[in-house]
Design brief:
The complex is a heterodimer of chains A (213) and B (466). Chain A is α/β, with parallel strands linked by helices. Chain A has 9 helices and 8 strands. In chain A, the strands form 2 sheets. Chain A has a 4-stranded antiparallel beta sheet, covered by helices on one side. In chain A, strands 2-3-4-5 form a 4-stranded parallel beta sheet. Chain A is globular. In chain B, β4 (57-59), α3 and β5 form a beta-alpha-beta unit. The longest helix of chain B is centred in the N-terminal third of the chain and has 17 residues, at 81-97. The N and C termini of chain B lie far apart (46 Å). The mean pLDDT of chain B is 97. The chains are: A alpha/beta (213), B alpha/beta (466). At the A-B interface, α4, α6, α7, α8 and α9 of A face α2, α3, α5, β8 and α10 of B.
Chain lengths: 213, 466
């Protein structure tokens, strides 16, 4: 059950509408790999120079004012932000970059729909709370950034060991993180059901299967 | 029971729903491109799986292809070594798995959301996915179409299904007739200004109303394309005779198959009295040309309005506004009309179709691009659009005015290929996102219609199109 409790340092981003282009700029989408994006997370804010896929954080000119370049936030694993985090492009690279940096959870008052789905495929837990709850957590995180504990099974957040908020998330989605499940494996258990549906569809909507160019 | 179009499409494709209310839905069409597919193909290989249904898939490279390819160009000709690997990898993956691809040498290659419909791969009533958020474009055909992540690309390749939860229904009615100089792009930017970039989150937005009923498929695609900028990953429009005429012209289905399908396709409309969770009614005759001033598509104003200042907005939005103004270099500017522009981009999956190019060409005929503009480019959305435009002589109009006439691709919409802004350059762009750095590191993007962008090219500034 090692995936069921998240503790660590909270980094706060006091800004709405952080889009996936900010989380990882397009330059780094040229990779054909699924890992190795941590150094490019929030690239435009984190560095003062322009980066390339073959560079690492050590090659870059860091923006010392940026939170993730400061101790202890350079080791953050919980991100706390405002509205509509992860809006925009569908790039899963945004979640890969958060994951590779070390983030295990993102707390926000709302998320982009596609980003939200992508998180669960990569063991990053997106937690939706109300605006008021988020504002309260901003205060708590500002004074003690290392005091958060997220319990995935109880679906609750503790601060300084005291219960703070519970959150809602679908069990089937949570299971993927807690048990590290793979969607393709799960769905292929329904192979016969899909084949049956497809056969019927072929009969009823023949034009969808007749097409050839 | 009265159903919305989204409800009907959902029910039609539903295979099962689990205890957590997560559903498995069947996918009819899967578009692929070079950027979000390599890791998905790798996943298939790793699990020793083959694509579930080959003919459901159509691929093309678009995001990082250069737009100055000329007549003889191959994937190997791409000078950016890293971008080249991705395009070569798509060739390899499509060959290995047997997936139909319009590769970089094909006359039909194009931005996947422009190419798909015009080649007839998008048919009404389909579920359509692609590893690209602007897949919502295809909703213009009465399709349930949405962008997905790369893990989902792998999942769709392997299982022909997507695991998702049902969205809520939202209706946006656009009624009335447009003023002169106003286009579908202005209508959708106006909507995003009203409801914000999270206004449609968790919803499928159905666009309807008298304006939509008379709008062309190109205009409908522009509107559905931008649904995602209002937070809705699904945008859709009911099927009518305009849809069917387009499909008849563009698909290769036999007449017999068409008549069989037509009857079903015409049922793809929301029933009278269908229930929507949210409803918005907009009189489009009141809308002026729209231009974005900030770094989010919701930061939009009438082209001649004052840029918002601190007194116009709530306290909690002050921080967002000052960050955006600083990034855009607007600390001292009162209106958009006083800004000088450096670059013009006409293109992208939002606005690179034939109608868009005709619109732009119509306002610049016989004029010259302002000497203040360093570069103005027109990037047709596909090989087919390019050929059509050349047949109509639009290329000559653009080139005589001083525009560069390019080869199809996503181009300067997203700064992934050689077409990029330099730091602090200000661009009049027909694309869909004015995010920080989207068109190049520190570049400044103002979104607008092709008509407004073309006018900005010849005047060097934003001007009144009427």
């Amino acid at each position: 059950m090692s995936n069921s409790i998240i503790t660590g340092i909270v980094a706060i981003f006091d800004r709405d509408n952080i889009d996936t282009d900010q989380i990882i700029p397009t330059e780094y989408l040229k990779s054909i790999k699924k890992y190795g994006f941590g150094d490019f997370l929030f690239d435009g804010w984190r560095y003062l120079d322009e980066g390339k896929l073959n560079m690492t954080a050590d090659d870059r000119l860091k923006n010392d004012d940026f939170i993730l370049n400061q101790e202890p936030f350079n080791k953050s694993n919980i991100l706390l932000t405002r509205d509509n985090f992860g809006c925009g492009s569908s790039r899963e690279h945004a979640v890969w970059a958060l994951r590779d940096f070390g983030f295990k959870a993102v707390i926000a008052s709302s998320f982009g729909d596609i980003f939200y789905n992508n998180c669960f495929k990569n063991s990053v837990l997106p937690i939706k709370l109300s605006k008021e709850e988020v504002s309260h957590l901003f205060e708590r995180a500002s004074s003690s950034p290392d005091s958060f504990e997220i319990d995935l099974l109880k679906k609750e957040i503790k601060v300084d060991n005291d219960f703070c908020y519970s959150f809602e998330v679908k069990d089937s989605l949570l299971d993927r993180i807690v048990h590290n499940l793979d969607d393709v494996d799960i769905t292929l258990k329904d192979k016969l059901l899909i084949q049956e549906y497809e056969k019927e569809r072929q009969k009823q909507r023949a034009w969808l299967f007749d097409y050839s160019n | 029971m009265s159903l919305t179009l989204y409800d009907k499409l959902w029910d039609e494709h539903l295979i099962k729903t689990d205890d957590s209310n997560e559903s498995l839905i069947y996918i009819d069409r899967h578009y692929l491109h070079e950027v979000t597919s390599p890791q998905a193909f790798e996943g298939l290989r790793h699990k020793n799986l083959k694509p579930w249904r080959l003919d459901a898939n159509v691929a093309t490279p678009d995001h990082n292809v250069p737009t100055t390819r000329g007549k003889t160009f191959y994937a190997e000709s791409i000078s950016d070594e890293i971008a080249k690997i991705q395009v070569v990898e798509l060739d390899k993956n499509c060959n290995d798995f047997g997936i139909r691809q319009f590769d970089i040498t094909s006359k039909k290659q194009g931005i996947v959301h422009v190419m798909g419909p015009e080649l007839g791969y998008t048919l009404p009533g389909m579920t359509i996915v692609c590893g690209d958020s602007h897949t919502s474009t295809h909703g213009a055909f009465g399709c349930l179409a949405m962008g997905i992540g790369t893990s989902e690309v792998e999942h769709v390749l392997a299982t022909q299904c997507l695991k998702i939860s049902k969205l809520k229904n939202m209706q946006v009615q656009f009624n009335g007739e447009l003023q002169r100089g106003v286009t579908s792009k202005d209508i959708v930017l106006h909507l995003i200004k009203l409801i914000g970039t999270a206004g449609g989150t968790g919803h499928a937005i159905e666009f309807s109303g008298s304006y939509i009923s008379s709008a062309s498929m190109e205009s409908r695609m522009t509107i559905c394309n931008m649904a995602i900028e209002a937070g809705a990953k699904v945008g859709l429009i009911g099927v009518d005779s305009i849809t069917l005429d387009y499909v008849k012209k563009h698909s290769n289905l036999s007449n017999a198959m068409h008549s069989k399908a037509n009857e079903y396709w015409l049922t793809l409309r929301s029933d009278d009295g269908a229930n929507f969770d949210k409803k918005i009614i907009i009189d489009v005759s009141q809308i002026k040309p729209q231009v974005t001033w900030g770094t989010s598509p919701e930061m939009t104003i009438d082209f001649d309005a004052d840029i918002p200042s601190a007194k116009d907005i709530s306290e909690e939005n002050q921080e967002n506004m000052s960050l955006a103004k600083a990034y855009m270099g607007l600390e001292k500017s009162k209106t958009l009309q006083e800004l000088s522009f450096d670059r013009i981009f006409i293109g992208s999956c939002t606005n690179s179709r034939i109608e868009d190019l005709r619109d732009a060409a119509s306002v610049i005929k016989g004029q010259k691009v302002s000497k203040d503009i360093t570069e103005a480019i027109v990037v047709p959305g596909s090989g087919m659009v390019k050929a059509q435009a050349e047949e109509e002589g639009l290329d000559t109009i653009f080139m005589e005015a001083g525009f560069l006439w390019r080869d199809p691709g996503c181009s300067m919409c997203l700064g992934m290929n050689p077409d990029q802004l330099k730091p602090y350059e200000r661009c009049a762009s027909t694309s869909n996102r004015n995010f920080e750095g989207r068109q190049g590191n520190l570049g400044r993007t103002h979104l607008m219609s092709p008509l407004m962008a073309a006018l900005t090219a010849v005047n060097g500034k934003i001007t009144d199109p009427s």
